[in-house]
Amino acid sequence: MAGRDSLGTAFDQLTRAVERMRRHSDRQRLIVSVEPSFATAWLVPRLEQFRHEHPEIDVLIDSSLKIVDLMQGDADAAIRFGSPPDPQLQSRRLFDERLCAFCSPVLVSGRHGLRSIRDLSRATLLHWDLAELTWAPATRRWMGWKAWLDLVGASDVDWTRGTSFSDYNLAVQAAIAGQGVVLGSLPILHDLVSAKLLVNPFSEMVETDIGYDLVIAPRALIKPEVAHFSQWIIREAKIAADARA
């Protein structure tokens, strides 16, 4: 009798294990290739909402500077900056680029706070080392301090000063810590501005012809998890844009 009870327990455990495997196999897995700065500042804070709406989808965020091959299925979708047209891929603009200078609120307070663009002459400029962008010269055209200052009519400001970072997120964290002024995309850093961690002390802004795009291989759109993610992120981008309007 004891042997039969042990055998029954073993079968029960096996049944439960098979059921867990079946449930696991029914789950959908979504791989999204995302640039680190976009992932950190905009996407990750919103992912909990997507998981709430689609608990059946497991999301893997591939946050790196590598441009994955979507046609080969290296990822289901990608969010790219400055992505050139590709007839093999479907692309949807999420945000147009609007470059502003951002800093901690502590740098704009007091008698010697930053007030006008000329005040950048006595501020520490935080740079993202453009040499690191050789990973994808055909897909990324980041504007550094020199080009931005020229376009806003402040070419006399010495753009060579300051601190450089190989990781853009570190430059943003340095700005939040009050260590200087960083160039940033208003759509992407808007949440940090809303949280009063960063401010845009100047009226000067540069709009470019590039932006952040959702890029998908056509065959991936037949996957329900890809369709759900596409609809969700397009909706979230619109909500964010409407909030800034």
Q: Please give the CATH architecture of the largest domain.
A: 3-Layer(aba) Sandwich
Order of helices and strands: HEHEEEEHEHEHEH
Mean pLDDT: 84
Shape: elongated
Q: Please report the distance between the alpha carbons of the first and last residues.
A: 75 Å
Estimate what percentage of residues fall within beta strands. Answer: 15-25%
Helix content: 25-40%
Count of helical regions: 6
Fourth-tier CATH superfamily name of the largest domain: Periplasmic binding protein-like II
**Got a strand count?**
8
The secondary structure category is alpha/beta
Please mark out the parts with pLDDT under 50 across 5 or more consecutive residues, or reply none: 131-139
Overview of the molecule:
The chain is α/β, with parallel strands linked by helices. It folds into 2 domains: 103 residues, Periplasmic binding protein-like II (D-Maltodextrin-Binding Protein, domain 2), CATH 3.40.190; 113 residues, Periplasmic binding protein-like II (D-Maltodextrin-Binding Protein, domain 2). Helix content is 36%, strand content 22%. It has an 8-stranded mixed β-sheet with strand order 2-1-3-8-4-7-5-6, sandwiched between helices. The chain is elongated. The relative contact order is 0.20. About 4% of the residues have low confidence.
